[in-house]
User: Fold this.
Amino acid sequence: MKGPMNHQDSAFRIPHSALEEPPPLLGAWRRLYLAVIGWLALLILLFYSFARRFAP
Amino acid sequence: MRLADWVVLCGALAFIVLYGLWRGRGSNSVSKYLLAGRTMPWHLMALSIMATQASAVTFISTTGQSYVDGMRFVQFYFGLPLAMVVLSVTAVPIFHRANVYTAYEYLEQRFDAKTRALVSAIFLIQRGLALGITLYAPAVVLTVILGWPDWVTTLVMGGVAVTYTTLGGVKAIAWTDLQQMLVMTAGLVAALVCAVLLLPGHVTFLDAVTVAGAAGRLNAVTFNMDWNDRYNLWSGLVGGMFLALAYFGTDQSQVQRYLTGKSIAQSRLSLLFNAVAKVPMQFFILFIGAMVFVFYIYEKPPILFERTELQRLQAASMRAAYSPVEQKYDAAFERRRAAATRLIEARRGGDSGLWQKGLAEYGSAQRELDAARRAGAGLLEKAGGKNVNDTNYIFLTFVTRYLPAGLVGLVLAVIFGATMSAISAEMNALATVSVIDIYRRHLRKSASDRHYLAASRAATVFWGCYAVIAAHYAKRLGSLVEVVNILGSFFYGGMLGVFVLAFLFPRVRARGAFYGVLAGEAVIFASWYFTNIAFLWYNVIGCVVVVLTGILVSNLERPSPNGRFETMA
Assistant:
């Protein structure tokens, strides 16, 4: 079992090779993340419109 | 239950279990048994993640929640996509790089063994308690339909799940989950179609949606900022995000799903698929509950959905007290149905005056109906001295009474299978933490791979037995889906906080992390005991307290001669 790590070596530093592995869509992870957040915003807007349309 | 239902139910369950066992063959090492040898593709992990989260509670309780409280529960999931993005950036590459079996194993690499043991213990307590609730859900089904005692049903369901989890490991779980999600989708669509088709001929789908909206059941987004309100946009986005961060980032039952991935990219994609699919799926399930509510506007619902309690209420000994309540209930039901019809006529005719009149009549009738239901429950509580909560019986009562032959078996197969799938993942995670973080770390540090494989299987059996016993005590806890989430919120804030410290605060050391977790948990329990703050906020409060305490304690430590902070002895 490994003991405590020096914080300088801790795993919050992500290896470059892992970061550079592209997603199958949109070409870059950042764009994919933005698309997911955009999807959430769209859903909230649609749900709100739906609730408002049929509110008593 | 008709013959066709039994055939579909038994056939579907047998296929799912046998298929899982077949796919799980060859799990003959600890790595293969607990992490599938890290060979899983993203789509399998994604469906496994969703299936693990969507247990029978999702079907039984979420639909009931929508029936009694409307669709605003969907807001609880708004933070989930944000959490998936954050975890894809942070936890996924960190855990992959650390090459760990459990999330808590990483905590020892980053901090120390004490912090790892503390967080592992918190996980075992929290997930162990939740496991009992997850297993109890199908017992609700069998109690309503077959009248079997709870302890028999939990024993049978637990036994089947333990068998294939013990033999097939994480691979069997993942492949079983795939089947579950396919069957679950089919069952959901079938339930919604039936709820709409079973409405009276003069009520169209648009009419049904109109009535559901007028009844306040389509309140999917609410903006009011109230700390004591469980579900609104803000608690969903912030509190829900923290809960999802904790659940998917620190709960081994989820972390273990994406640790089986071939690569960082595959694991990320599995989380992002969940981010895209989960909110619409929950909306759909809640919408089914709203349509069931409309169905029961035209078809008189029982005053209590739990059959055994209803029979007690109708017994001769309570007849005198119950009769006037029943008469009020019947009268209120007829008034509510007439008001709903008036609302539909008003919508079709564009008559705003009639609409307002219908709304007022509807509201009055609904209040009378609710009062009669409460009075019925009150009679039982007075006689039996226990709380009556039938939210979890609403959907199942609808399914078993009104769905056609074969379809009842299919929906029940979905519920049973989903539950077994969820508890198998939970048992697998509990066994993994027990063996990797406790047994191998503290009790038997150097033994053969075969020994640890046997220990993992034995731990799975142990947690299965524990689940059956815990399920016995889970039956009086109200809405099951809320209980699971409330229970998680007691512990997730503290767990999340320590991982935030590990990921984002490199100067924080072991002592700060350890005391941070203790302080976070103390504040969460104090918030619960002394305030009325809604449970979703516990995740935020706990996490913030852990982070602040961790930073404070680390800053108070004297720097060592080489300029670094001292570590714990």
Observations:
- DSSP finds 22 helices and no strands in chain B.
